[in-house]
Amino acid sequence: MDPARRSPRARRRLGQATLARVTTQWHRPYTPGRGRWLVIGWELVALAILGGATENLFRLTGTAFLALAIGFAVVWVIGAFRIMRMGVYVNGYGVRVRGLLRTRTLAWHDVEHIRLHQASHRFGRLEIPSGMTVLIERRDGGHVQTPLWAQGIDFHRRPGVFRSVYQELRDRHALARLAPA
């Protein structure tokens, strides 16, 4: 059905985001760090150890062992693909945050602020600082965590790249706020 012929409620439900996702190119404003390959290699070794332990525990042979190997290979390929695509992507429409298990797309007009956040992890009463991350605050009061972490695999030993990505996100957001709706 032609989008112009849909009811106003159906057009809102479909939203501009659906059309923007199909018609625009998303751009990651940084190159992924080499540490991703270490994570993928570690994942392969861990799955191989788990497969070996499973094979020994259940005494798998023949078809069962082959099924286990194929299953672990599929899990590894999918995991490696998702790890390589993780990150923050931008275009004229908005910002897309790809995580390991979920992808979130926000239109620029839904973003209130993009700011640095001092992250920390709590273990009972113990609080361990983990460094600066980029946090996206939505207009509705919620926030979206990003995989952009100053000491993470993409920016380890590249603090200038982290700062420039943060600044580019802020600049794109400011430009989008100036543009007429």
| Order of the strands making up the biggest sheet | 1-2-3
Number of helices: 4
Low-confidence stretches: 1-6, 8-22
Task: Let me know the largest β-sheet.
Answer: 3 strands, antiparallel
The oligomerization state is single chain
Give the beta-strand count.
6
Integer-rounded radius of gyration: 21 Å
| Mean pLDDT across every amino acid position | 88
Report on the structure:
It is a single chain. With 181 residues, this protein is of the alpha+beta class. The chain has four helices and six strands. It has a three-stranded antiparallel beta sheet. A three-stranded antiparallel beta sheet has the order 4-5-6. A hairpin with a 2-residue loop joins strand 4 and strand 5. It is elongated and about 65 Å long. The model is unreliable at 1-6 and 8-22 (pLDDT under 50).
